Amino acid sequence: MSECRERKSTGESGPGTCCREGTGTGNASAEAAEFHPRTTGKYFGTGLVALGAWWLLYGGLSPFAKWFTFSLLALSPGSRLTSAVEFFVFETPKVLMLLVLVVFAVGVLRSFFTPERARRILAGNRESAGNVLAALLGVVTPFCSCSAVPLFIGFVTSGVPLGVTFSFLVSAPMVNEVALVLLYGLFGWKIAVLYAGTGLAIAMVAGWVIGRLRMESHVEEWVYAAPAGGDGEGGSPYISWRDRVRFGLDSVRDIVGKVWPYVVAGIAVGAGIHGYVPENFMAGIMGAQAWWSVPLAVLIGIPMYSNAAGIVPVVQALLGKGAALGTVLAFMMAVIGLSLPEMIILRKVLKVRLIAAFAGVVGAGILVVGYLFNALL
User: Fold this and answer.
1) Which residue in 348, 305, 340 sits closest to 150, CA to CA?
2) By CB neighbour count within 10 A (0-12 exposed, 13-18 middle, 19+ buried), where does 152 fall?
3) Is 364 exposed, middle or buried (0-12, 13-18, 19+ CB in 10 A)?
4) pTM of the prediction?
5) Do the Cβ atoms of 143 and 174 come closer than 8 Å?
6) Residues 6+ apart with CB under 8 A from 29
7) 332-359: pLDDT as tens digits
8) What value does the CA radius of gyration of the chain take, rounded to a whole number of Å?
9) CA distance 108 to 13
10) Residues near 157 by beta carbon (within 8 Å), at least 6 away in sequence
11) What DSSP character marks residue 216?
12) Which pLDDT value is given to residue 6?
């Protein structure tokens, strides 16, 4: 057990790491510690206190933004600069606080669930059910552009159908917990649910279509020759609550530490739009009446390199200036679901024709969503 403790102290243990020495006494002890009522109550009690402090601080952001803008900086009410500054001072801590809360919660959740477990689940299902499961699993499974290649290789070499793999690859970046929480915090649950539902639908349909195209020959040959990934259980139920909390804190440090510059940059852009772009200016460019606004939004979004945390504040500002919801959603989906950097990374394992089919199918789905929401809302 000393080796196991050493690995944990150096940060090498993870959700799928579990020492199994001897006759299993270590597992029994860990399981007892995991579900001991006093231990569980301690962590839940501490969590409630921390959540209460978070809520009090969150509730004071609006008064703080007004004090900072009008009292400390002494800016005149009604000016464009004042509007932009107040927007930035209020939205920056608001978005970052939401981000920290949700990333921590999902980090704890992910200690029960890993990409290896997702791979095993998908490999054991029929393609039709696999597309649905893959899209749903993509929401709760760790994913970033840099992990696209190893995930793709692991899925393919484990026997997961190509279309099912693409359902996962579309869903994971597009419908993620950061986007959902930020949309909920900024626009309410209806917009968040609409975004999640349409994103999942695009992932399922895109995977199904790619599966029907039978383009396995357009995967680079060396991928099929790669050895299959490990068969570790992942998401061990014997991890203590102390380690699960540590996973949550590590997620905050890793994810928030990487995306906060994009968040601040996105809010700064949103603040500029909020303060300096005239009301309803975007209605003529990104409004529902302009038929070309949806494909233009998709074309503009594809080469942009951002993530949900950075793009949602821009979306908020665009909607406030008269842009249509469908057009803005299409823009957001293109930025995080058809990212040009991700497609460049996928070129290592996919031939150009399959990448083009992937971009075409997903892009068509995004266009349908944009036009549908513009017509109905």
Assistant:
1) 348
2) buried
3) middle
4) 0.63
5) no
6) none
7) 888 887 877 778 878 888 899 999 998 8
8) 23
9) 15
10) 223, 224, 226, 227, 228, 229
11) G
12) 37
